[in-house]
Amino acid sequence: MIRIDYDRCDNCNVCWQACLAMVIDRGPVVRPEGETLCIECGHCYAVCPRGAITVLGYEEEEARELPAERPVSPEAMMRLLRGRRSCRGFRKGAEVPDEVLQGMIEAASVAPSAHNSRPLKAYVFRDPRTIEDMRRRTLAYYRRMARIFNTPIFAAAWRLCGLDEEEHRILSGAFLMITDPSRDRDVLFYDAPCLLVITAPRLNSMAQGDAWLASENAVLYAETAGVGTCFNGFLIMAANWDRRLLRIMGIPWKERVVGALMVGHAKSEWKREAPRRTIPVKRR
Description:
Layout: E1 2-4, H1 14-18, E2 24-25, E3 29-30, H2 34-37, H3 43-47, E4 53-55, H4 74-83, H5 98-109, E5 121-125, H6 128-149, H7 152-160, H8 165-178, E6 194-201, H9 205-224, E7 228-231, H10 233-239, H11 243-249, E8 255-264
Antiparallel strand pairs: 1-4, 2-3, 5-6, 6-8, 7-8
Helix pairs in contact: 5-9, 6-8, 6-11
């Protein structure tokens, strides 16, 4: 809910124009049903030229004025995006500073959220013993999956269901790759000293998208701080089917793991952008 300070308000009505939830009527005045309609998105607060609006419940939050010019140019942003790499090799013993992790979580917290509901939670794993327990349990899950996926009966059932055969081939190979006992290095977490996991309510479909957006915000922030990250889909899938793994992680079953990031300092220093094809576009 919001409050308007009429000693400051000059009746420009830009808040009314910005309020798509129709909490504010022309005047401006808050509608009687405003408390029910307001999603606390803060549009009215952010657009008011006189600082006449307060979002109740956020009075203690620090709010900074925006600069007249964009803080990042389109060219600089594109260079950041093109230069970012998924890190699959982390320096052992190189801890991630607390301020970087806090910045990643703050960046995740300001990502778009359906109806501004923001039902996400973040879990940070830095204890080597816990990470090793997670690794062992995840690999145990995929050893079972590798046995199932590589049976002729399962492959036939996959085809009968009309699922993508190429996806089946990729998954079968990936499960065998990460569980291959002959490998002498960690090909699941790549020795990452830290894991950042973002969850959403299991039965809230809109929140799943919120969590992906939040995770990407965290990744981009880490890139500006010189810290490497990589999404870990293996952990996501295993955690959402294996209750024992969730217990190791301290995550209740009512939450779904949506974003899982390995975080640390990269072993390699990238020298140039990797080539990428632009997504095909159809214009009508």
